[in-house]
Amino acid sequence: METNRLLKRITQHQEMEALVVGQAIPNLQAGAKSLKRLKRLLHGMMRTINKPHALPEPLSLTALLFSRSNWPLVDEALDLMLECELVYIKNHAIHSPFTATCIDDIMIITDHDLPNDKQPQWFLDPLWEAPHLARYMIQPAPGFATLDVGSGCGVLALLSAKRNKASHVTGIDLNLRALDVGRFNALLNGLENIEFLKSDLFTSLKGLKFDLVFFNSPTDDEEKFETLLRSGSGILAEFFSALPEYLGENGYCQINFAVNESLADPFSDRLRKWLSVHSASTWQAHVYILEDRETKNSERWIRGWLTLRRGARGFFMSKHYQYDQLAYRASTEENINHIFDAMNNWSESGSYQIATDWWGG
């Protein structure tokens, strides 16, 4: 009987053109009251599916609608999702190109995961790692200027804006669709201290300084380590070479990155070289390692969360394997304090710690 009721509701709506994963854009003209109500409904519907004390996972909007425990909310939720153009009806069936994830009370709409060879040009990160990264993000103080580079659906920018509404957050991306999805997510969460701008890394930000810079970099392995080293390292080289010009004197940068690593060309050497292109500053760095494995070339492939700041004691890096499900059980404040403690209490002599010691397992 419940299924028949939903089918009856579906027949009351006109059929729509298909919204394609990687191409659809939510309705930026949806009313504020509708968005506020939709967020509350999504929260309520997710509680019936999400496992307690687990990392948040992206949930299909259609799966939320068809969950039996959500039937009392279906009528209103369906109407609001249609108003916001998050779902469509075709041949008396509901479809959606989007998922919803709730991280720290921020509701994030983004794309379904797709195989690498099926991802269209404007595809958005389906939050592969954002639930982890959220637990290690430095929180902005009042008045801070925060930058999210390559913001995608806006998740890191939105989390920063929510954590201190007296700060201002800028999300930048070359993907125009990403900017619109980020703006929709800001509206959905009622955040006004945030903006999304088109920029190729820092090119549209001349003369600006930021207290916090986040970058969920588009570096991965995709089982093609040679390709990663060219494209990934190229992006990182450009980013880190320009960073000193845009990071405030007491600012912090945090970046999710992946690189190939070898004794002949250690990442820490490359990082130090990139940072010195336009700056004579000394730097301190800390990293949580998510993945560390041998490549086909008997080298190593590393993914980690790097925290970087200027430091009078010279350049160093430290390694901590705590970037996993267990670390999620700690509070964000505890995780950040661990990073600060490691950076403040570093006692190695000299100005440079050998990269092979840092990467060595």
Description:
The chain has two domains: 2-112, no CATH class; 130-356, Rossmann fold, CATH 3.40.50.150. A hairpin with a 5-residue loop joins β11 (283-294) and β12 (300-310). Helix content is 34%, strand content 23%. The longest helix has 22 residues, at 225-246. With 361 residues, the chain is an alpha/beta fold. The chain is built from twelve helices and 13 strands.
Précis, in short:
The chain is α/β, with parallel strands linked by helices and 361 residues long. Helix content is 34%, strand content 23%.
Features:
alpha/beta; 12 helices; 23% strand
What is this structure's SSE topology?
Blueprint: H1 2-11, H2 32-47, E1 59-60, H3 61-66, H4 71-83, E2 88-90, E3 93-95, E4 98-103, E5 106-111, H5 130-133, E6 145-149, H6 155-163, E7 168-173, H7 176-188, E8 194-198, E9 210-216, H8 225-246, E10 247-261, H9 267-275, E11 283-294, E12 300-310, E13 319-320, H10 325-328, H11 332-344, H12 355-359
Parallel strand pairs: 6-7, 6-9, 7-8, 9-10, 11-13
Antiparallel strand pairs: 1-4, 2-3, 4-5, 10-12, 11-12
Helical fraction equals: 25-40%
| Beta-strand share of residues | 15-25%
Gyration radius over CA: 22 Å
CATH superfamily of the largest domain: Vaccinia Virus protein VP39
Q: What is the CATH topology classification name of the largest domain?
A: Rossmann fold
Low-confidence stretches: 222-231, 347-361
* CATH architecture annotation name of the largest domain: 3-Layer(aba) Sandwich
Structural domains: how many: 2
Top CATH class of the largest domain = Alpha Beta
SSE order? HHEHHEEEEHEHEHEEHEHEEEHHH
Strand-pairing-aware structural class: alpha/beta
**Outline type:** globular
Distance between the termini: 58 Å
Main β-sheet: number of strands, strand sense, barrel status? 8 strands, mixed
Mean pLDDT: 81
